[in-house]
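Final paragraph of the annual report: two paired records, presented back to back.
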Amino acid sequence: MLLLALDTATDGVAVALHDGERVLAAARAGDARHHNEVLVPTIAAVLAEAGRERGEVTDIAVGVGPGPFTGLRVGIVTARTLGLAWGARVHGVCSLDALAAQAVAEGRVAPGEEFLVATDARRREVHTARYAAGDDGLRRLAGPDVGPAAAVERRGAVVVGRGGELYPDALGPASPPADVDAAFLAAIAADALAGRGGPGLLPVEPLYLRRPDATEPGARKRVTA
């Protein structure tokens, strides 16, 4: 296996290369305004750092959100296009799962402790999911959901992610990480493909969770005298 992982659900882009057992190379670049400009060059840089060729890639894992509309489209369309061009299988991973996996790996939460991942959903809202990590690995207990930060039922749980930074009054002090590290997204996909458990894979479809701002116009109203 040679798995390329990429995510554009949070600020910037995150890319990693995984051989099924370990991360060979990883990088972050850009910001939320430049996903489409930096994603492909970052993929090329990660492959070069690992000394691998694009034709060796067998699988591609892409973060399917939840996240902003434009960012998710860039990542998912790129993953699908590269999958077709390289003959690689493409898999979806919940971006919040990657943040949760990193929090556990870095010891931000205690074993067995429930915690929340909260990311910026714009419009003064957050994307959230509730997790716990035990002997059977990381489990997503609820979500992902979207809504006002003030409406989130924290119940004393540790909050991981940029949502806590943006709305500390509602969510309390935030714990790192703030944005997705593709190395953890890659590990989730590699574990799932190898049958080692974990949160698992999702269809390669964006988790928007709400309607877009732009909609098709309705029929024109008739004008009467």
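The closing record of the year follows.
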Amino acid sequence: MEIVLATRNKKKIEEIRRIIVGLPITILSLDNFPDCPETVEDRSTFEGNAVKKAVEVCRCAGKPALADDSGLEVDALGGAPGVYSARYAGGSGGGNDVRNYEKLLAELKDVPDDKRGAQFVCCMALAFPDGTVKTFLGYAKGCIGHEPKGKTGFGYDPVFLPKSCKRTFAEMTGEEKDKLSHRGKALEKLSEFLHSYLHL
């Protein structure tokens, strides 16, 4: 089975490949389909954006397509940055990671430790050419640290401490993060679905 990943984010592709290793699936990316247009993420929920991306890429590629939308919800900010996580500090794409988490830390400057709760949310959407769409949600609860730590991962990983952990996502190996991450949990549900779908 071939699945097109509706992303050009190499770190995201690596993460997904790691988690579905062992399944009889060939992962293709948007680089294999240069004619597919960039999806405008204009929905108000992670699920809405993920489904929109998956359906558009599926239509364009003519193959099952997997998209995700994920982001960070911070309690003290009323759930912000939410669906705007990737462009929180302005601009678009993953080139603004440092600016995004620096803006977040600045906004939480005077917020005490017990009020720095946050969660990462991930919705994966798998769209099939027959119009079927399946969605899988994953959450990673934790809190926001006071300064960035660690060199791995991407996005807000350097400032996010998963629950009962002393290290940020960016201080963990990929495999350690997969066990705790929102994307890892959503992909676990996807993997279970694919096992039954492929009769494994």
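Residues 46-61 form the longest helix (16 residues). This concludes the annual technical report; the extension proposal builds directly on these records.
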